[in-house]
Amino acid sequence: MATIKIDTTKYPGNIINNAFSPTSETRHSINPSTGEPLYEVPVSTKSDVDAAVKHARAAFKSWSTTSFSERSKLLIVYASAIEANREELEKLLVLEQGKPLTLAKSELDMTLTWLRAFATMEVKDEVLDSNSERTVLQTFPPIGVCCGIVPWNWPVLLNVGKVGPALITGNTIIIKPSPFTPYCDLKLGEIGMSVFPPGVFQVVSGGDDLGPMLTEHPGIDKVSFTGSIATGKKVMESCARTLKRVTLELGGNDPAIICEDVEIDKIVPKLATLAFLNSGQICMLVKRFYIHEKIYDRFRDAMVEFTKTIKTGDGFEPDVLVGPIQNSMQFEKVKDMYAEIDKCSWTTAFSGGVREASKGYFITPAIIDNPPEDSRIVTEEPFGPIVPLLKWSDENDAIERANSGETGLGASVWTKDLARGEKIARQLSAGSVWVNSHFDVAPNVPFGGHKWSGIGTEWGIAGLKSYCNSRSLWIWKNVM
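Structure tokens predicted for aldehyde dehydrogenase (NAD(+)):
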């Protein structure tokens, strides 16, 4: 496979109809570790969006009738092309997103696994009724032109997590990267130019006004959005104007219920890592720890000791777990949450803070010791490296507190008693629930949220069906 080159001064343009489409205006994001500007990327206008939609609609006519085997073959080729360029993509991901290089490598590993898995997942007709008089099938034709709106925290995996299902089910797709992390997503589009037919997979970059141009466009049939709850509501409102199909994967405030029988030394390293990974900037990390009062003090002390070993720094430094907060807007939000520590007189088990002397957006981890249940650190998702530890004694009370609030993305239970763990897990209102783990995901497993954490699912056959219409096909026999 040919390798791509990275021009560190300017990107040639949007990816429209398998060609670079330059724009009159450009913009740049910054390296969150240094505050230094990265290279220029396109700023799309409505005419750019119109062009992409026109080509996507034209391409849909032939792509939707392309055989599953041919679409599958091209997804495999695309995965191989990404793999041939993974080293450059990993470095670019660290530069634009800030995550440690080891985590960037993990994201590329997952990206390749997901694409190759999607290539094997065929949504087949289902026989609902069959007798001597008739056969009734449920069939799943593709919706049409899809739009994937990708967030800044996991821009490579969540790009292909939309592209793969859309393309394998016969749709065409236009990807809109986050304005904070447009670089890898544009490169993924560039790689796709040599694999897919024109108009099948396109990427348009821009500012905050680009999202509404896409969600309101009458030529787009479905939007898959991953991002904040507040923006998700706006996306849904916009899509309603043209009755677009919509999938929303939004924020979470994941609880972990720790029972009194756990082996603390075994689980603390994993749990602490799953709280501070990617600087806490993953929607399905542990955000609230509910710890049985019998082991609370020992668990807290063990977590503090482990957290002392966590290194914060630039993503290219060795052994870094916590990189910078990705952008200035999120940095200010996390700083505001840290300011609550003194304002509300929270007790800190481990005091983190802002690295004031740094040009980057660095904040070190903090652990809050048993704050009131109505504290912001408990009720809100900080999306930064700060977590509360909370005590419980009554199992039903712990479940009720874990289920409180408006979100329900992920949750976990930790216990040696698997029957007890499953019993608790079945009572937790979340789209993904784990016993003795957290944040396990797979391309063949549906992923989505309850309540305000989203609508619909991505991934798995259920997720692929969200890129399809449902059609009931009645075939009567012995009539003619």
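Residues 14-250+453-472 form a domain with the Aldehyde Dehydrogenase; Chain A, domain 1 fold (CATH 3.40.605.10).
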